[in-house]
Amino acid sequence: MNAHINFPQRSGPSTFGSTLPTNTRPSDTTSLRMPRFFKRLFKFPQMDFEMAIWEMTALIIAPKKVFRKTKNTWHRPDPSFTYLLSFFLLLTSLAWSLAYADGVAKTIRITLVFIFGHFIGSSLVVSALAYFLVGRLLSGLPGRRRGLFGPPGDGEQLEFGYCFDVSIRAFFPLWVFLYVVQFLLMPVIAKDYWASLFFGNFLYLAAFGYYIIITFLGYNALPFLQHTELILTPFAVLVVVWFISLFGTNLPKHLAPVLWAGAALRKNV
Question: What DSSP character marks residue 115?
Fold first, then answer.
């Protein structure tokens, strides 16, 4: 008589938009339970970089079109946007380093801080805060369990993966205004003139204003959240801070991205 082993069937939703069918073979269980985001992390041919470029363009001119449900999940298990924006940050870090850093060591430091500190690190922190605060305070379904990465079959759960999607897309305008435009205008907006102070500080108002608006649009797209307009509250505070800064605080001189990485602005800026 041949021995026969009955493998226990594992149940429960998977993460990042993948499902575990009931007829799954035991040998396939591990691979199917792995989040699709991580499975595609190094599969570059499967990444949709064209969609990522379209989203970056839309985030500036029509951000509302970016957030929509795809198949059975709001989260998109495609790291192409993260890779592409990280590459752009690499390029801008080299530009800031050539202009304001001395030596290879500081260049490497600025590059690492730009990508893993400013972008990835801050996005993870904001995603974690949004996952717990937005999911708890704005959910129209009290008592419902929130999926960490979210099963695709349940469209009424806040997914951590979706929170991360919103955060990295909201970071894109920050990159445009503070890492690109500010770098190009730095010789002008860092001067001791009120016009320089006004336009330099306006870049920060535009950058963080876009960040707040895109964050609001991201969560407002979820039909099971209520009172998402509360996310716009920091915008009023931002306007007040910007107005106060016009009385003598040149933000580019104190908040330029290269300063966050430990480099110093040259005196002739």
Answer: I
Under 8 Å between Cβ of 78 and 48: yes
Q: Which of 232, 198, 183, 229 is nearest to 212 (CA)?
A: 232
* CA atoms of 198 and 19, how far apart (whole Å): 52
Residue type at position 52: A
Q: Collect all residues with Cβ–Cβ distance below 8 Å to 118 and sequence separation of at least 6.
A: 89, 257, 260
Which secondary-structure segment (H or E) carries 212? helix 194-220
Residue 9 lies in a domain: no
For 72-123, the pLDDT digits (tens) are 666 777 788 999 999 999 999 999 999 888 888 889 999 999 999 999 999 9
pLDDT of res. 169: 93
Per DSSP, what are the bridge partners of residue 139?
A: 225
Domain ranges, residue 102: 80-260
Summarised one tens digit per residue, pLDDT across range 11-49 is 343 333 333 344 444 433 333 344 555 555 555 455 667
The number of domains in the chain is 1
Domain assignment present for 21: no
Residue 79 backbone zone (phi > 0: left; psi -120 to 50: alpha; other: beta): alpha
Q: Is residue 88 part of a domain?
A: yes
